Records
---
Amino acid sequence: MANPVLTTASIEKQYESVQAVDGISFTVQPGEIFALLGPNGAGKTTVVRMLMGIIRPDAGTISYCLGGQEPAAPRPSELGYLPEDRGLYRDIPVERTLIYFGRLRGMSQAAARSAAREWLERLGLADRMADKLDTLSKGNQQKVQFISSILHRPAFAVLDEPFSGLDPLNQDLFLDLLRDLRNGGMTILLSAHQMALVERLADRVLLMNRGREVLQGTLPELRRAVQAGTRLRFQVPPGFAVEDVRVTGLSDIEVSADGFGGQVDDGVALNDVLRQVAAQFDIYGVHSEQLTLHDIYIRALGDKPPANGTEIGGPAA
Amino acid sequence: MSQTLWAIAVWELRRFFKLRDQVIGFVLLVVVGGGVAGLMTFLGNRGSSTFSAGVSIAFLPPLPQLDAQLAAVTTIKVVPTGGASEAELRAKVVAGELDGIVQAGADGPVRIVTKVPHPWWQHTIATLITQQRQQQQLQSKGWSEIDAMAFIQAVPIQVEVIGKKPMADGLDLVPTGVSGALPTPAVPVAVPSELAQDQPASTLAAGEASPPAQERGGQKTDLAKQSEKEASAAGASLMVGLMLYAVFISLSFVFIGVTGEKRDRVTEQVVAAVSPQTWIDGKLIGLTLASVGSTLVFALGMLVIYLGFKYFKGEFALPQLGLGPMEVGLFLVSALLGLVMWSCFFAAVAATINDPNTSARSGILFLALIPVFIVWTVVDRPDDTAMQVMMLVPLTAPAALPARYVAGQPHAWEIVVSLVLLMATILLLRRLAGKIFALGILMHGKEPSLREMWRWVREA
């Protein structure tokens, strides 16, 4: 297995009386999309800023291994960054701005111009390249900002809240773009609070709350971690109680007007469960349900509320 | 210079030095300046009976040697006498059909008969006749062209005012029918080297007839020295004035640039790509060049307006500022170093400003103008102790050094020490400003206190 692109170990950051990040550790593997997920105030942006060297961690280590076997400080051309606190030069034409950011990341003038035009064409902004940023809609400004962060084809892109301010259509567009970039070999770390979008995109997820890790892993791993495997609903004739349902490997059983449902225990084969239910009831329908990331997060928090004054993003699209 | 530093410098230069805008501003400056010049000329000639774009004069006797030169002066029209007598021409002056009669012989004073005491065109006539006489004289004595150019002396002018009653308060200095000698502007006089031997220095007073060439002596006459001193003082004042303008422009560029980037939230994306020190270094280079460019455009505009004034007066000549290549070179070096030094200060302070509209800290930036103002107040005394000290103090050196070099007599060691101290200060300020800039540029929502900034500097 290749070395992780990024390894963080027990990083911490304190702002005056607030412990913004408290002992976060994770790795990002080459070619994956890794998501930092959590409500506002969870500490995601602080982690991202530490990863980009904008602020220093009070404790812990951050190391990169981009393009080599040994950890090394990344070159500007290897990193891309879309900050949460974003903005570009408002009174300067879009193309010139993009070329400038390409130049800052080590591109030649010609290469930056070529890449800028290619991306503007791809995002439907080719006819606006000579316009000043101020004249673009918010969504189009967001696209230009996004282009500026990945124009130089970095090996590793860090995108802080990439879906913020986008309408559903543009959210879908960005999902496709990010998948394409990943399929092209780019490793991506993104932070977001729109869990439904992240669920559709991320290979692995780190759930955060109040600066601490809540859960980490792939989606199935998260489900297992909160013991939220597959939930089955059976449509059966009424007239029975919970005690009448005797199915090994099915727990947390609830009875409703048109049947009953329960959680399939870890490691239990579905055909075993189906055979037992079929032996007891006439089955008119079966529905499989899985916990969403949102549900997993809520379940994982348990009695620990999210950060003050924040809401966990529900379905975004 | 690294590619990134170069890219930042060019970016900042192009952001603030926009040639099209500069040209438009330049044209506006010329138009407004030209308008003001025209208005002032009009107001200055209200007393003249025939103000127009030009005046009509007659030479009695005719002076055909000046025809070629006067043809180039569009504001003076020479009217042929047509055999008219002096009495007939005088009548035309009184009637307003003619602005004046010029009577000039082969030597001696030039006599002008006119209705106004101080006709604006008298200097043009005096200059042209002076040059014509000198050419004649120098050619007859076989002097070289260089000697002839250096040998310039003013021709005295006498103005006779006619057709106008004297004012009761005596302000009409030249009464009707009375001839009087008018002062003419001082003209630098230099004597051809072969004539300088064993000749005592002499003073050529304005309006006096110049002594014969044989009577002039020394390398330069006192008048020439005085004229050179005045020219040097003008040059020094110009340099300090341009420095003041450049510092002000630099202040506005850095202030707008840095606070604008904070406001537009550009900073984080740039800092993630380049180090803050590289960013501020690129800014300093680009914005200093932009300031110098804007100052040069401003100076050019001023020169055009000056020449416009001269043109309206019929004298098309470059100003005498006593500036040679060395003076200009030293000024450019000092200006560049000074602007870099002040830009370090501006960038560091601007980076700590949260909201430029409300921050009290914006006023601190104007402190930079004070040292240049102080130099301005003593620029006419270039060898005073105060100026000597200011030339060595880095805060005032960028303005004081070139001004004193032009108008005073600094020792070579003073120049060297001044430049060395200035460069050392720049290196120190660059590091300190880089640290404050690095931390301040990413702060939003509050401004760091002076104590915090001092801590950053100490930790640096």
---
Amino acid sequence: MSASPALEAHALCKRYNDVVIVDHVDFAAEAGRITVIIGPNGAGKTTLFNCLSGVETIDAGNVRHRGDDVTGWSSDALSRRGLARTFQRSSVFPTLTVADNLCVCAENRTRRGIMRGVIGLSDPASRSSRQTVRRVLAELGLTALADVPAGRLPTGTLRIVEVGRALCANPDTLLLDEPASGLDDAETEKFHQLLHRLAGRDLAVVMVEHDLELVVDTADVVYVMAEGRIVVSGPPSEVLIRADVQTRLFGRPT
Amino acid sequence: MTSGLDVVGLRAGYGVVEALHGVTLSFPLGSVVALLGRNGAGKSTLLRTLAGIVPVSSGRIAWRGRDITRVPPDQRVRAGLTTIPDDPNVFAGLSVADNLGVFGHGAPTDTVFDVFPELRDKKSQPAGTLSGGERQMLALARLLLTPGEALLLDEASRGLAAGAIERLYAVIGDLATPERAIVVVEQYHADILQRADLVYVLARGAVAWVGEPGELKGGTLPAAFA
Amino acid sequence: MLMLELALAGLGIGAIAALAGLGLLVTYRLTGVFNLAFGAIAMSAAYLQWQAVRVWHWPVAVAAVVVLLVVCPLFGVLLERVVFRPLQRRAAAPAERLVASLGVFVVLLGVAVLVWGAQARLDAPSLVPYRQLPLPGGVQLPLSTAVDLAVILLVGVALVLGLRTRLGQRVRAVVEQRELAELQGLDANRVAALGWVIGCVLAGVAGILMAPTLRLEPYGLTLVMLETMAVVVVARLTSPFRAILAGLVIGVSQAELARVHPTGHAGPLFDTLTSNLFVVALLLALLIVHRFDETGSTDSGTTARLTSRGALTPIRGWWLVPALTLAAPLLFNAENRRLALAVPALAIVLVSIVVVSGYSGQISLGQAGFAGLGALFAARLAAGTMPGFGHVPGVAVLALAPLLVVPIGLLLGWPAIRRRGLFLALTTFAFSVAVSRFVFDQPSVTSGLTIRPPHAFGTDNNFYVLELLCLAGAFLLVRNLHNGRVGRALVAVRDDEPGALASGVDVRRLKLLVFAASAGLAALGGALLAMGSRAFDTSAFDPIRGLIWFAAVVVFGIDSAPGAVIGAGVLVALDAGLPEGSSILVIGVCAFLLGRMPGGLLHSVHRFIDHSLRRRGASVRDLVPIAGPRPARLTSAGRSVALMMQRRTAAR
């Protein structure tokens, strides 16, 4: 195992006005592992994701990506660094085709070449971008939809497009916010296989997920989050059977 | 079974794209009907058409014997159709309390906080600042405030944690009375199949399979699912 | 007591500003539309009142009742029914609603000029008898100001209390998410109509109260509203009391400052600042305020839904239409060709709007400012009076002037990094107003300027060819911005900014780039416009002109550069063939009807052709991938944990 985890956070805090949403969270995701964050609604899971991926600013604490301090980095810079994410509510580009959706991410892995495009020169990396897009489309079974404008697709399919887009960043760390919600059974099953393939390629996969079956089937490490704090973490077989976790997940909050 | 919500030869879609190619089905009073199918099968479109948001290009919708095919959405609500849409499901700029005011037409809201205590402390917060699951809870508050005689739920359990899903199904169980037709669109088959009286499977904009949940349980689903 | 008396006089101005700003704010809260036509509606009501009292000799009170309680409400219902309902129904982008209200503005203004003429009338009937109220301290307050203040307070309180009622909740729900509101059983049409009725009555009240103090004149009264935008911005579109306070404070400060006359160089500048205090306040407010509380969905401000990408099959050879539009003038006679010189120049200006607002979704209402600066710089460079530059020869002016405007575009692009939608629209508009007031209106800057085509292109024919070359160059740049990596990234920013960021797109740099490019293009177009007409005419680059240009681009298809060329051709032809101002009226009527032609005029024509070509559409059937047989869902591990969980919960 390498010295530092792919993504790690220390004493992360986030407040809105006076409400503490994320409260001194310590978190680590290893390469080649699937790390899942579970917890009741409103526990702060999505906000934690937003802090990790640079979408929201952090009030205290720090984030390290592959050992480097990336606290305060913007989300586009993190994406170019190899930390890609999807959103809970679809953020695909509806007027672009599926292939172009993926292409945006593939060709912005570096900032170089933008000005070349403005003066009409071709992008030197365009061939490798196209190849990445083709590979990811094939891997996700989206090849048939490549030329369909994304706005015309059902929501479940959009989630897969979004995962595909994140994969086009050639990420080493992948943050997925409820990726399986809205997927039908066949898609969930395929998605499950995809996750294992990605972990097999030494990606660090981090997910927020409510579908406990999927969690049990896929997770290597589970973090249980409640009221902004990490309650417990560990392998699912140990974590999920704990009485306090069951109360958090199934009991009525008081 | 009493005649509830009946759909005959329904065709509908968005602009040039037709999503429902002649769907005939009925949701009788006193039953919980599960509407299943793959993504893009037309489940949401069917619900939106029943609610009156997507215009009908041909076919007929009747509610308790009365033709409502051309009735505007707000009048359908007053006739007893309650739709909880997928997205947007809440008024993001309004506070939680104001959302409940609009949902419940001013009815007292204590029952909502009994079932979804997560929302209690957030009454004055804009709904847009809630998490995805909390928004869904807020949307579901309508079931507790002003449930009509036909409930159309589009992926009601989406984004909810396991505990909240159980509470949701308990509410649905309480609402399943002989005078009411409940239609549940879900991806989560195992749960809904335990509660449903009847299952429709849509595939590519048409009804592919009708039956009782027992016929689906345990084994693999019909090939029409694919 | 001079100060106190001045303060009271300022209170009168401030009360008017607060009344107008408050009306705008209330209309926005109740309808979700930033109603640019608010001033025009007020002006029309004031004219109707004048007509009834001065021409038909009705008693003032009767006339006011008829205008405010019959005509204004009816107009509100009409607006909702004809203009805004279709827009709301298809959840049109805020830019479309803004442009539709601009359409109303233009049409009302046109009608007023047609019926009552452009001259000012000084005998606007006053609702309030002229009387001075004695105040302690020996000063007097005009009764009209007191009435204004009372009305303002009443409206503010009514808004705050009203929005808290059940009806208020419903109104907000409909403004926020119309479809969801209908699913709650609300009659959204009626609720929206109520909002428009209240908005129009308020505009009427403002107009009738203001007309006696200000002059009754179509343009003046309409534009007063644009000046009072500062009040609305300070209130962040939300707080009526902040709006009132801001209006009063600015009014009083203006009156007090008018007393001070510094000598020397600073004198004229100070006077300009004082007399334009509302513009200064608007700029300051836009810098200080960080966020608006906008109504409606979170994506407000993107123009994404205006676009037509991929929805229709392209018609082969349709580019011939703009090409022929541009080629035709080469065959015209001398007089007509002189008129046609404006077409390519205007096309470049319109294309600059397509770039910034169509491709990347940033609403920019400030293009008139850039175009005017382009013309100004070109004139001064050619005359050798540009500070820091000597005499710049011929064609080099056309390259240098836009380059000098580009940094200013970068400057305006800076606020655009954080701002979207209405906020950005107002910021850019304020820029244009500021440039117009503080640069173009300064005699020391613009008086005696002449400009003519470069010597080698002196004849109209040659100059037209030069213009076409410039347009070709512009199109080359536009193509690079629309295609390939840059184009995709821009559309990504327009469609979903968080998504674009997550995809690694450097949104900040891209926005600066697009604002800079657009400013440069507008400057080039402006310079050519001025050269073609052989004069630097400040009224050609008036902020209102910028609004009309934006409306024209939306009408002709906001993401269509060829559409912009056709639009320029149509505008110039209409103005040449028909009485002056008719092009504006046509654009106004089209904007008025945007609800019925989504995506603009050309797109609607295109869709009509598309529909008649293929009767039956595609179906979702074509879109969904065919998958193999469905695998079983529960794995053994999953099933056992599920069972385990169930047992646990049952036991509790």
